[in-house]
From TrEMBL:
Record has Acetylation as a keyword: yes
Binding annotation for substrate: 62, 112, 158, 165, 189, 241, 259
Reactions listed under catalytic activity: L-glutamine + H2O = L-glutamate + NH4(+)
Organism: Streptomyces zhaozhouensis
Oligomeric form and interacting partners: Homotetramer.
GO MF: glutaminase activity
Superkingdom to which the source organism belongs: Bacteria
Name of the protein: Glutaminase
GO biological process terms on file: glutamate biosynthetic process; L-glutamine catabolic process
Protein's gene: glsA
Enzyme Commission identifier(s): 3.5.1.2
Coverage span on the entire protein: 3 to 310 of 432
Family note: Belongs to the glutaminase family.
């Protein structure tokens, strides 16, 4: 097929760009190989095409956020989740300590404040923290169509330096947005971020969103269509943090990035796309990943608002 050749050529063109930095605030991530580079496409029919490092495992990090949001919406329903986490773009960094005036509600589920709150909303009310982590891992696995597991070393490394997320969680607890021990919630959220995936997995997870909730590989309905629509909408407006506007205009695909270097895009009704390259721009988005998506979008006319 011509698609792997196209992908290999695209990787070759961005390979020389060594700008950007590894995520320094998580020591285990700072020790990663910065040269990894891969890209994968998964169609809603279940075909996967890829080039480069598409079977190398790395931690999912913030790319877990839209999927955990999907699980919370499924498990609790829209109203309780929306009462705790908004859907407004923040225009701020992913780890900004910002909550809505008055209510203390995080602006959206893609920034850490919203994602920490969302983690606590996965599963039925009253679920034990360890069971909730189990529910999150099972859910992420259903999106991927393969059993996933966490990287304990990355998890422990992040927990030792999680002061900022703990501060956010304590503020959320102060506003009664969180009702549990903040440390327990951050521990579970960090575990969620430490789940290991490959670019192939991420493309399939994105394809499940693109396929309106049905995993194209396993045929399992993981979430309902309204939940898929909600998640894709929030990815479109908030998935790239303070670069979300640039992304929406330049690339025009619902997307989510992670600080281990993963990046996904989901094109409704068509494909899931994933790239992996660990060096990050100042927003915390993969430098070569952003370049690849810009190229895919313009070469194939993927911008949701049409070709120029
Ligand atoms: N675990 C990371 C954190 O909470 C995830 C951040 C990210 O991938 N942008 O800081």
């Amino acid at each position: 097929s011509v698609i792997p050749d196209y992908l290999a050529e695209a990787l070759g063109d961005v390979a020389s760009d060594t700008s950007g930095e590894l995520a320094g605030y998580i020591p285990e991530l700072a020790a990663a190989d910065p040269e990894h580079l891969g890209a994968a496409f998964a169609t809603v029919q279940g075909e996967v095409y890829g080039a480069g490092d598409i079977d190398t495992e790395f931690t999912i990090q913030s790319i877990s956020k839209p999927f955990a949001y999907a699980l919370a919406l499924s498990d609790r329903g829209f109203a309780p989740v929306l009462a705790s986490v908004g859907v407004e773009p923040s225009g701020e960094a992913f780890n900004q300590i910002s909550l809505e005036d008055g209510t203390g509600r995080p602006l959206n589920p893609m920034i850490n404040a919203g994602a920490i709150t969302t983690h606590a909303l996965v599963g039925p009310e009253g679920l034990k923290p360890a069971e909730r982590v189990e529910r999150v891992t099972d859910g992420l696995s259903a999106f991927a169509g393969r059993r996933l597991r966490a990287d304990e070393a990355v998890c422990a490394s992040e927990m030792e330096h999680a002061h900022r997320n703990l501060a956010i969680a304590h503020m959320l607890r102060g506003h009664d947005i969180l009702t549990e021990d903040p440390r327990t919630v951050v521990d579970g959220y960090t575990r969620q971020c430490s789940v290991l995936v490959t670019a192939r997995d991420l493309a399939m997870m994105a394809a499940t969103l693109a396929n309106r909730g049905v995993n194209p590989l396993t045929g399992q309905r993981v979430i309902t269509e309204p939940v898929a629509r909600q998640v894709l909408s929030v990815m479109f407006t908030c998935g790239m943090y303070d670069a979300a506007g640039d992304w929406a205009t330049q690339v025009g695909i619902p997307a989510k990035s992670g600080v281990a270097g993963g990046l996904i895009g989901a094109l409704p009704g068509q494909i899931g796309i994933a790239t992996f390259s660990p060096r990050l721009d100042p927003h915390g988005n993969s430098v070569r990943g952003v370049s690849l998506f810009e190229r895919f979008s313009s070469d194939m006319g993927l911008h949701l608002m049409g070709v120029p």
